[in-house]
Design goal:
single chain, alpha/beta, binds nicotinamide-adenine-dinucleotide, Rossmann fold, 47% helix
Length: 252
């Protein structure tokens, strides 16, 4: 019996990168996983199925309330009760370093819509369903940048600060329903999209390496363990917390 056998997990933004790594890891722990992204990642789900993983795919724009409701209805009807939500979808890897004088309002709003409103909308939809079953795990993907105040990404840093604050507020609201809400704050992770963005790599990588107690590049597998722990029964008395997984750059 694996720790997540019989559980269903939705991971947002899981067509690639960290989200895909989280989904794969939860599946290896026994969960049925629902992959979701702006376009339903059917090809990724099929590839996982060929590895013996029970995986579904659904289109989900986390910033759009109607899309969120439609995706959660799909899960209700096709997959069954939701036990675990990983709020991973986010705008980061497409950003360029920009001063507060250069960030345009359209980009500010887009980052906030996905990174903050998206977490709010998906958490609300999940909480409604988890409350009926009296148990649930919500895991929000934050970033060490919120603790560091990394310059030139003001919208992103503010959005991840909001994710940490939302984690605390929702944990207090939803505890009575048996729903645990925690966050994982990753350091700079070398996902495919990060490596494809030289502006991010050039601006952030060297400083990250130098600031870490464990001074090496961070990979997706460095983060999956924390998410898996917070999704599983061993963390059932932990809620409202942010676990920083960045090789010891931030300590709190
Ligand atoms: N890579 C890092 O260094 C790092 C560090 C700390 C935190 N994070 C966070 O981890 C998460 C994933 O990062 P990544 O590097 O894998 O990013 P990525 O860009 O590779 O993947 C993000 C995924 O989210 C999806 N997405 C974007 N907008 C969406 C929306 N409105 N609805 C649904 N899906 C949407 C994208 O299509 C993409 O598949 C993000 O929240 C990011 O902020 C990343």
């Amino acid at each position: 019996m694996k720790p997540l056998s019989g559980k269903t997990a939705l991971v947002t933004g899981s067509a690639r990168g960290l989200g895909l790594a989280f989904a794969r890891d939860l599946a290896t722990q026994g969960a049925t996983v629902v992959l979701s992204d702006l376009q339903a990642p059917h090809d990724v789900a099929q590839a996982l199925q060929q590895e013996g993983i029970t995986a579904w795919a659904v289109a989900l724009d986390v910033a759009n309330a109607a899309s969120v409701e439609a995706a959660f209805d799909f899960i209700d009807k096709q997959v069954g009760g939701l036990d675990i939500l990983v709020n991973n979808a986010g705008i980061f890897t497409s950003l360029k370093p920009q001063s507060i004088h250069d960030i345009d309002m359209e980009e500010w709003d887009a980052v906030m819509a996905v990174n903050v409103r998206g977490v709010f909308l998906c958490s609300r939809a999940a909480a409604k369903r988890m409350a009926i079953r009296g148990y649930g795990k919500i895991i929000n993907i934050a970033s060490g940048t919120a603790f560091k105040g990394t310059p030139l990404f003001a919208h992103y840093v503010a959005s991840k600060g909001a994710v940490i604050a939302l984690t605390r507020a929702l944990s207090k609201e939803l505890g009575a329903d048996g729903i645990r809400v925690n966050a994982v704050a990753a350091g700079l992770v070398m996902t495919d999209n990060v490596m494809a963005n030289p502006d991010i790599v050039n601006r952030l990588l060297q400083g990250s390496l130098e600031s870490r107690a464990l001074s090496r590049a961070q990979q997706t597998d460095d983060v999956t363990g924390a998410v898996g722990f917070l999704a599983g029964p061993q963390s059932d008395f932990i809620t409202g917390q942010t676990l920083v997984v960045d090789g010891g750059s931030v300590t709190h």
